[in-house]
Amino acid sequence: MKKRTITLGLLYSRTGTYSLITEACRIGVMQAIAEVNADPDYDMCFRTIERDPGGNADAYGALCEELLQEDDVRHVFGCVTSWSRKEVIPVLEKTGGTLWYSVPYEGFEASDRVVYGHACPNQHLLPLMDWVFGQVGKRGYLTGSNYIWGWEMNRLAREVILARGGEVLGERYLPLGRVDVERVIEEIRVTRPNFVLNSLIGPSQYAFLEAYAALGREDPHFTAATCPVLSCNLTECELPAIPAGCTEGLVAAGPYFRGETGWPKAVTEFGSSHEAASWAAVHNLARLLNGIDDSEKMSLAELLEGPAAAQTGIDPVNHHKSLPSLIAQVENDRFVTRARYARRAGDPYLANGRDVGQPQSARLKVVK
Amino acid sequence: MTRQVQSLNLGGATAWILHRPHATVQSLSRQLGAIGLRVESAWPEPTADILAADFVFFDADMGYDEQFPWDRGHNPMPLIALIGSEAPGRIEWALSAGADAQLLKPIGDGGVYSALLIARATFGARQSLLAEVSHLNTRLNARQTVVQAVTLLVARGQSEKQAYEQLRQMAMAWRVTLEVAAERIVVSRAAGAPDICQGGGTDD
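Above: the input entities. Below: the structure tokens describing the complete assembly.
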């Protein structure tokens, strides 16, 4: 098939505190682009133009506008925080561009200009809460970074915990980038919860996990069997930043963990769900564009009316991906799947309630 | 009064849009659909089904009172005004029509979810205030009756304080409000009925 060239924009901060996540996303995007370019069944070649906001949230809007207007790009892959995504959406609206966003987020958004390719709370937090309630109990301590991700995750967790008759023993936030976790650790030590929901990001999370591991050496209650640490945002890509052993027993929810099967046509296994979701996003776009004249000029809404849309798993109304919900636990520095909840459509406004169903093939043991 | 914004239960709710066919209706419908609501639209006047709506969006630019099948200010669900022209006259009309929240036109990619939650919270707060006012008015109107009842009890040879206490005890025994108890006493005396103050009355 004769190939046309379509330019994609990349808007990733390759420096700053998110660079590990950014690199994981970028690796997935680049690998998929190479595959599409080499695949004779696709009638396009992708080339990329990159802009690097350098970790400065305020730079995203202007740089995205450059990509969309000066470089005539229609599809941008990028942003790894809700803050930067929200900066970019008005620009997308103005210019008719599309953002492919492939990291977990807190839900309550459904822009006509964004494809949400990673999990939202009905795909990560709700299955995770369900699993942990059955394993260790319903008395939780909530901590998180002091911005929208932490706030919304903890708000929903509180709602679910109380609705199921559990108890919230404490809730504390750390400003972005701060590593003074002593007070959080002290409150956990005193309240002795059944689990700690940790929605900290970046260095705050690394410092917390290190301090919590130390607490577990002092008092064995604070280890995975009796009080696991939970996360909806930690993946393999950040493990190298955390001292060895400090994540042991951590339980995470996500659509993919390294070594999982079931993702279509994976040439190699992915390093993390960030990489997998970004890889899938590029392939989804290629499918939507393929075989349609001038499809590179069409809006996302128009592309999602096309014949290939149903195969992508992208909901044509809310633009969230249908994804598996896996619960995995760190064992010898890699994630091991403990439970699988059925693949589910993204439900960003929780319109279908809070019920997550039963895990499918669960190996229900908590390993120390 | 605390206002707790509940994110629960928007899924499956029905929203009506009273607006002429327009891009506004499309953008609004898309957002409502993504949030999980069912959408109906009509212009200018809706069918009676609108009475079952959970939310109604109305056009503040071209709307008029007769569009709504309820008396002005007695909307049975939260209303959200779609405002294009921010002229004071139209805003005044939107408010008098009972707007609980507003969205500015053109409707873009956001704003609907917060308008829904704010409208529902405002509507709920107003409903409970109205219920409170109605309750207080009932009690206010019964003041004279309470005075009459106490006077009747005083006439039986007790102090005002004792009479009031007896009235309170009777209300508790009958499990009714003080005002209802007072009314029973006054009515029974006026009708020349047997002295209900002796018998303890009934639970009804």
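Note for the figure: The interface with chain B takes residues 89, 92-93, 108-113, 159, 317-319, 347-353 of chain A (CB under 8 Å).
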